[in-house]
Design goal:
The chain is elongated and about 60 Å long. The chain has helices at about 5-15, 20-30, 35-45, 70, 75-85, 100-110, 125-130, 155-160, 185-200, 235-245, and strands spanning about 20, 50, 55-60, 95-100, 115-120, 135-140, 145, 150-155, 165-170, 175, 180-185, 200-205, 220, 230, 250. The protein is built from ten helices and 15 strands. The strands form four sheets. A seven-stranded parallel beta sheet has the order 6-5-4-9-12-14-15, with helices on both faces. Helices cover about 40% and strands about 25% of the residues. It has about 250 residues and is an alpha/beta fold. InterPro entries: Carb_Metab_HTH_regulators, DeoR-like_C, DeoR_HTH, NagB/RpiA_transferase-like, WH-like_DNA-bd_sf, WH_DNA-bd_sf. Keywords: DNA-binding, Repressor, Transcription, Transcription regulation. This is Lactose phosphotransferase system repressor. One of its GO terms (molecular function) is DNA binding.
């Protein structure tokens, strides 16, 4: 197996399993750990992986995106804490947009059930979670359903969303960086997110630390467009401070 084949194998493994470890890769590919570290460094330079202590995880891109089913199995304790903290920022909002994705779905699950609320969403999962809440009115955006995320996209969804003035939007992303802002792999998804940004008075990003520094294909917002960023303690306090200097309050839970 040559170097390129090995690196493709490492990338395929990361995408299949969600992450890779140096020690395990060295055994599987029968090479030295230092060789694996060099491979991970190169893959990171190409924007395909993000390195962690002892391993790496895949970066979502135009050619690769995890499904909602996969997201529901990864980092669930962290995502649950993030969602609870984000839901606490609801304030006096009466109309709320909830984005597609597992973390936004957990935010919706954490909403109070004892007050009137109108929730606009493109996510079938979010709509299902809230459908039986007596005091919550759910508006599901129409459009083409993406099977990987079970959410609607394209001009039908964007046009419907453009007709609303929304108090607060909970927005997710595949990557967030200080240089490129918030990004996602699919242009159709990006347009719905961008319209949610335009239609809302307040905006909150909720996502795990692994998304920070990652860059995907389509940019739909800047870091400074948000009043708050909610993430887990895996994001260092120094890096959180760098993001906060761009405008939003950064909350680590």
């Amino acid at each position: 197996m040559d170097t390129d084949e090995r690196r493709r194998g490492i990338l395929d493994t990361a995408r299949r399993d969600g992450s890779v470890e140096v020690n395990a890769l060295a055994v599987v590919f029968k090479v030295a750990k230092e060789t694996v570290r060099r491979d991970l460094h190169v893959l990171e330079e190409h924007g395909l992986l993000r390195r962690t202590h002892g391993g790496a995880y895949p970066v979502e891109s135009a050619g690769y995106e995890t499904t909602l089913a996969v997201r529901t199995t990864r980092n669930v304790p962290q995502k649950s804490r993030i969602a609870a903290a984000a839901a606490d920022l609801l304030g006096d909002a009466e109309t709320v947009f909830v984005d597609e994705g597992f973390t936004p779905q957990l935010v919706a699950e954490a909403f109070p059930r004892d007050r009137p609320l109108t929730v606009v969403t493109a996510s079938l999962a979010v709509a299902t979670v809230l459908a039986d809440a007596e005091k919550i009115s759910v508006l599901l955006l129409g459009g083409r359903v993406r099977g990987s995320t079970m959410a609607t996209v394209d001009h039908w969804a964007s046009k419907m969303l453009a007709g609303f003035v929304i108090d607060l939007a909970y927005v997710g992303a595949n990557g967030i960086s200080r240089e490129y802002g918030l990004t996602t792999p699919d242009p159709a998804v990006s347009e719905v997110k961008a319209q949610a940004m335009r239609s809302s008075r307040r905006r909150i990003f909720a996502g795990i630390h692994a998304k920070f520094g990652a860059v995907s294909f389509c940019r739909f917002a800047g870091v400074g467009d948000f009043e708050a960023i909610v993430t887990d303690a895996g994001l260092s306090s120094a890096e959180a401070q760098r993001y906060s200097l761009m405008g939003p309050q950064v909350i680590r839970v």
